[in-house]
Each structure stands twice: as C-alpha cells, then as structure tokens.
Amino acid sequence: MGIRFLKIAVIYLLIGALLGGYMGATENFALSPVHAHLALLGWASLALAGLIYHIYPAAALTLLARLHFWLHNIGLPFFMLGLGLVLTGHTSAVPIVSISAGSVVIGLAAFTANVLMNVKANAGRE
After folding, report:
1. How do residues 71-102 score in pLDDT, each as one tens digit?
2. What is the C-alpha to C-alpha distance for residues 96 and 16, in angstroms, rounded to an integer?
3. Which residues are within 8 A (CB) of 47 and not within 5 positions of it... i.e. 6 or more apart?
C-alpha cells in the first residue's frame, strides 16, 4: 500500500508541475488554487501517507488504508477539475467540488483514524 501511495503521489507531482509551468508560460495564474491543491493534497499528503504506510505495514493492511486510497484518489481528480471550472467562471460545477472534496476529506478521516489506531511506537521497521 505504501508503494501504491508513493506512485500515485508522483503522478500528482508531475501534473502539478506541468500546470505550474503552463501558468507561468501563459502568465495566467487563475488556476493557482488547483496547482496548490495538487501539490499539497496530491503530492505531499499522499507521499507522506505512503511513507507512513511503508514504515508501519500493519496500518497499510487495513480497510481504512484502502478506503483512504480510493476515496482520496477518486475524489481528488474530480475536485481539481471542478475547482478549475469554478475558477474559470463555470459556477455550475460547485456541486462537483463539494461532493469530491467531501470524498477527499472522508478519505483523510480514514487515514487519521488508521494512524491513531495502528501506528504505534516500536511497530515500524527499525
């Protein structure tokens, strides 16, 4: 599970970097919040979760880890697409943002519960 999180995290890193490069080249920074969310919710959060799951394999084997992975990675692309639409004037996409952001938050809640229940001192790799 840790490796799965790390691999998807680098995909978000690349997408965020490409979006940042596009914004710089066009000097249009309207999608800066999308870029920031890709970097933080995509790259940083998922990479850190991957490292935690790698260090604490018991946490990686739980239903909570699988829920975290799928809710986060189904929600985040729709969240970013919807947010991009809203930022460019398509306010009808607000429900997409709300529902998909909710999916990400529920995934993060699963991660939080998993860490609190299954990440214990001396349980990781020494």
Report:
1. 999 999 999 999 999 999 999 999 999 999 99
2. 20
3. 5, 6, 9, 10, 13
